[in-house]
Design a protein that fits this description.
Strand order of the largest sheet: 2-1-3-4-5
Bound molecules: zinc ion
Number of helices: 4
Number of strands: 5
Order of helices and strands: HEEHEHEEH
Shape: globular
Length: 126
Amino acid sequence: MQHARTVAEYAYAPYSRFKVGAALLLSNGHIVTGCNVENSSYRLTNCAEQGAISAAVAKFGPKVRIRAVGVANVDVQTACMPCGACRQTILEFATDDCWVFFPGQSGCPRECAFSDLLPESFRLAH
Ligand SMILES: [Zn+2]
């Protein structure tokens, strides 16, 4: 969570002012971070979790696996759990026992198994 809080300071969030950081604990023991990067065309905004996942794949390759995700925001003490798109992106790389740590209601620390955040998830059979 400390890594997530630290990288959130680097977020580019001039429109929402909602700075978010994400830190991934990988199965290889490394921690990789990312922050949100907004765009004036809002739908082009990248979430912190997706930035961290892109960085992890770029650094360790496509077999990288995520054991835990920490998400934090710095400017407001409010809930900040991964959005639906990020949950689907995390699923692609999550281990079966992946955990997620994030500020819940009123910023209170929460943690839960990733499988509880995305039940009945979509997976393309291959
Ligand atoms: Zn997201």
